[in-house]
Amino acid sequence: MSETNAPTPLASASASPSRRDQPGYDYDRVELRRKLALVPEEPGSSKPDPILVVDNVVRRFGGMTAVDVGHVEVQRGAITALIGPNGAGKTTFFNLLTGFDKPNSAPSMLKRGADTAKWIFNGRDMGAVGAAKVSRQGMVRTFQLTKALSRLTVMENMLLGARDQPGENFFVAIVKPLWRKREAEIEAKAADLLERFKLYEKKDDYAGSLSGGQRKLLEMARALMSDPSMIMLDEPMAGVNPALTQSLLGHIQSLRDEGTTVLFVEHDMHMVRHISDWVIVMAEGRIVAEGPADTVMDNPAVVDAYLGAHHDTDLGDDSLLTDESFDEIEAEVAHEADARKEADARKEEGTA
Ligand SMILES: Nc1ncnc2c1ncn2[C@@H]1O[C@H](COP(=O)(O)OP(=O)(O)OP(=O)(O)O)[C@@H](O)[C@H]1O
Predict the structure, then answer these.
(1) Which residues lie within the region annotated Disordered (predicted)?
(2) What's the pLDDT tens digit per position in 253-268?
(3) CB 118 less than 6 A from any atom of ligand 1
């Protein structure tokens, strides 16, 4: 199977509807960029429609402060990159937000006040919420596949990612027609996602036998099984070959175009420049700069952060990925979106 295939949108009726099809969703990238252009390019700036608002998240390891974020907001429906030199605190921040770690500033029986940690996702307070519940609320992050998951097949990995498994609901679990139906839906959805990520032919292979790039695709596909409102990707491009890089970028753009908010940590500045609607920069645990990708790299605070920590970081030379190749991806994604609209319209006409 080729790794270079372009992304395929969800095609069959058995997949859950994308957010684009849900009432009230009106994605318009030009409008989004126009709104973001009005946002002040400063750390902690307010966004027009934040899906995530974070306050006072502090994490110390011994005497070292890994994360000290006073305030930050993530715009709904946008692709936001979280960048920063090695050790800036990006992964620790992801772990805290998704319930896999707890801030030292977490509110307690003794202390709850203006300086205690608080983060609101989609209008809900997530501060005291564990990892499983965070994911059920629609904030899902990708992980590297563990050894155990490598010994499961690609399809088994997908089924593990599903929300509302029949066994989770006692009533559904004991009424056979109900769980049969739900099980079939989940399997159909997994199959659709695997098709979309060009992994369907590998469905019965062990996940451990996939290439590094295919594992990244599987991680993303598995995360999408729970229909997240926001997907958080930790270094999606690490270890991925240039051909599959383009495919991954296309997938991330289509997710955003379908209404999923994307927050990703990445060292690859080519990727950051080309697909981000907004960039947040961390250094030494703090947010030091924010702005659109084409200007934020020139911010003196960003140059300082990278020069101070990481002299050899390439902040913008596109050697592998040219503007033409990204234009091609964008055109392909737009073409597929149009094809999807046409198919939906035909389907509607057929059922009218
Ligand atoms: N469990 C831990 N125990 C002790 N120190 C830790 C732990 N986890 C992270 N750190 C430290 O916290 C700091 C922030 O680490 P983190 O991995 O969050 O940075 P990062 O920005 O994701 O870096 P990279 O880009 O290299 O992945 C680093 O100095 C790291 O050594």
Answers:
(1) 1-27
(2) 988 988 899 999 988 8
(3) no
